[in-house]
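Hey L., structure's done. Input below.
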Amino acid sequence: LELLKNGTWPGNVRELKNVVERLVIMSPGKTITVNHIPESIVSGEISHEGGVGRLDTVLELHSLREAREEFEKEFILQKLEEHGWNISKTAESIELERSNLHRKIKSYGIELKK
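Output:
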């Protein structure tokens, strides 16, 4: 909580609200720890080009389908990063068959990192 309170929020309260909402959605379990907070916030490098500011982009989309697809893409990207781009570990953590994860990665044009 202190980390969020002491952060600089160039997008004001709306940006902070978006970050908290994203943490609630993306964090497993009922407790949010410092480990769940994106590095961009911890390091003070909040940017609308990546991570935190992406929620604003989702909210600007015109349809539920577009918003759901954008959210799913960002969710998959975050989980891949958390698991070192390991498909098996990522699929297991999000409770999805490996083949389905591969299909989604391909459909969203996600480039796998080694």
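Confidence is low (pLDDT under 50) at residues 46-52. Residues 1-60 form one domain.

-- N.
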